[in-house]
Amino acid sequence: MYESTFSEEWSQLGRDEAVERAYALGVAAACGHDNREEYEAIKAAADSAYDRSLIELSFEQGKSQALQLQSSGSDDEHIWDQLVESSTVELPAREGGLPEALAPADLLDRFGQVDGPPNNLNKPSFLVRDDKDNV
Q1: pTM, whole model, 2 decimals?
Q2: DSSP of 121-132, one letter per residue?
Q3: I need a labelling partner for 131 at 20 to 30 A (CA). Which of 20, 38, 50, 119 fits?
Q4: What count of other Cβ atoms lies within 10 Å of the Cβ of residue 71?
């Protein structure tokens, strides 16, 4: 599977290509075509610990997504085609754009409706001078 799409003849990989290859290797591993030597070579070629982490995460993501598709009854070729070979990835559309946690807070909607400063911003009575108390 992996060998039909990616060449194993490389001497150096950029971060994006390494992550893409690691993802494909994860998909292939879930489909029973484990290529541990290539995976270890890609990790060893990484420039930093951060890049190695991205490669590991990408591998696990590919493996996880392939296993999910397998559990729904998809065959290995369909899984490979859907996850690796397809050039377009269809993400579910979100209504309203942002997830609910990132949507503006309700308090911000009322900001323009307040006339003048809120009452709780007035000075406490012991800080207010009365003319009769000033001698």
Answers
A1: 0.62
A2: GSPPGGGSPPTT
A3: 119
A4: 8
